[in-house]
Amino acid sequence: RQEDAPEFLCFLLNQIHEELLKLDGRTVSEAGVAVDDEWETVGPKNRTARVRTCSRIWSPLTDIFCGQLYNNVKPKGSKASIQVEPFYVLTLDISSGTVHSVEDALKVCQVLTREGMGRYRLLLYFAFQDSSRGTKVVSLPKVLILQLLRFGYGNSGTRKVSRAIDFSEQLTVGKELLSPGNEATSRYELIASIMHHGKDVTSGHYTADAKYGDSWLRFDDRMVDKVSVDMVLNKQAYVLFYRKL
């Protein structure tokens, strides 16, 4: 089957997670997301909010790839609702003309979380027309996977966003992206990337670059070639993998 690269990636991570739970003597049914009871918290100016926390059952895989997001939605005239939930992939909106780099996309923080076997939880601003929303990161994973949202929907249907987006071998996640109480910044280094070749949404070709020692290798079907860092830092990248320093 033909699959979108990040969609297949999430499927693969979930399958490995389930296999690790089986090896540990736990059942596959436990491989899902654990949900805590909803409770209330008191914030600034004594304002209360409903809090619901979801977390993945721990495995060696989640220890590496799983982080947590803090989503605060305030419907007009209603009590705020806070959802703390796990993520494997942070999907960043790059459609705005003000976004020229991965750092810009993180600051905009229009984040989608992709969970399960390709299912989406959409958290775009237009989904809450009468609400205010804030998305922050509660905890960052050891390997941070960023998907640049290169496939979007417009008046003419689905389209590919081919805007050039800068990224580098080093990435710093500042406290502006972190939830209240998290002040420490995190530094990451690039270890892999995926690029989609083609102009159409329903067709194209994928290649992947991966760091091997001090060298970079490009995987193109059966072909594996050594490439320069300049070739890796292609501004058309689709998925980026960063390892925490």
Automatic annotation (TrEMBL):
Reactions it catalyzes: Thiol-dependent hydrolysis of ester, thioester, amide, peptide and isopeptide bonds formed by the C-terminal Gly of ubiquitin (a 76-residue protein attached to proteins as an intracellular targeting signal)
Gene3D superfamilies: Cysteine proteinases
Lineage: superkingdom: Eukaryota
EC number: 3.4.19.12
Pfam families: UCH
GO biological process: protein deubiquitination; proteolysis; regulation of protein stability
USP domain residues: 1-245
Entry keyword Hydrolase: yes
Gene Ontology, cellular component aspect: cytosol; nucleus
Protein name: ubiquitinyl hydrolase 1
Phylogenetic placement of the source organism: Eukaryota, Viridiplantae, Streptophyta, Embryophyta, Tracheophyta
